[in-house]
């Protein structure tokens, strides 16, 4: 999951954006459009900043606490860019994990983790799975449940134009796959009724 740091070539991105917009018929000489290629290049550099940020370093300050319960961090906002059409999808991520040997992280770690993984070309299914994998790896967690709820603009602005449609994905790891009681407790912490025998 680690990504090597690199420098964004903004002048090249601006030239490419100028060429792209011209190719699809945008008049970049029109009033207000002159700086659009530069602004768009800067925007996408920000939206894809997660390509150049490490996630492993987030676990540098893991703590050990006396506890025997589950931990939930709910309603973490995020926005990302669908890699298929380069349109946004956005929503909230919810995380429950079962610590191993009392290993826990500050709550802000999870918001930064979601943000870094979302700031790259993504699909919702992979984003959900990658967050779960990284928490399992970084904390050596005994169990992880991640639920992501989002609105996909490629479903509302093009194709079926299914306005108001939301998509929900989940990923389970560890004890939540093996123990239905633990899995049920994790889902209940998110306020979700889940009546299957496992995640």
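Q: What amino acid sequence fits the structure above?
A:
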């Amino acid at each position: 999951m680690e990504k090597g740091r690199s420098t964004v070539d903004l002048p090249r991105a601006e030239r490419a954006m100028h060429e792209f917009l011209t190719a699809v018929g945008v008049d970049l000489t029109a009033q207000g459009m002159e700086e659009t290629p530069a602004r768009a290049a800067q925007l996408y550099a920000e939206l894809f900043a997660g390509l150049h940020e490490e996630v492993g370093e987030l676990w540098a300050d893991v703590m050990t606490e006396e506890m025997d319960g589950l931990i939930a961090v709910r309603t973490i906002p995020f926005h990302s860019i669908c890699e298929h059409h380069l349109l946004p999808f956005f929503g909230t991520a919810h995380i429950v994990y079962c610590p191993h040997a009392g290993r826990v992280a500050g709550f802000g770690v999870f918001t930064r983790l979601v943000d870094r993984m979302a700031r790259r070309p993504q699909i919702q299914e992979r984003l959900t799975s990658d967050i779960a994998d990284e928490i399992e790896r970084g904390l050596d967690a005994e169990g992880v449940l991640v639920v992501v709820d989002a609105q996909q603009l490629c479903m509302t602005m093009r194709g079926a134009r299914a306005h108001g449609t939301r998509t929900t994905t989940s990923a389970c790891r560890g004890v939540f796959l093996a123990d239905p009681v633990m899995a049920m407790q994790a889902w209940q912490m998110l306020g979700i009724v889940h009546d299957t025998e496992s995640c």
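Q: And what stands out in the fold?
A: The CA atoms of residues 2 and 56 lie 7 Å apart.
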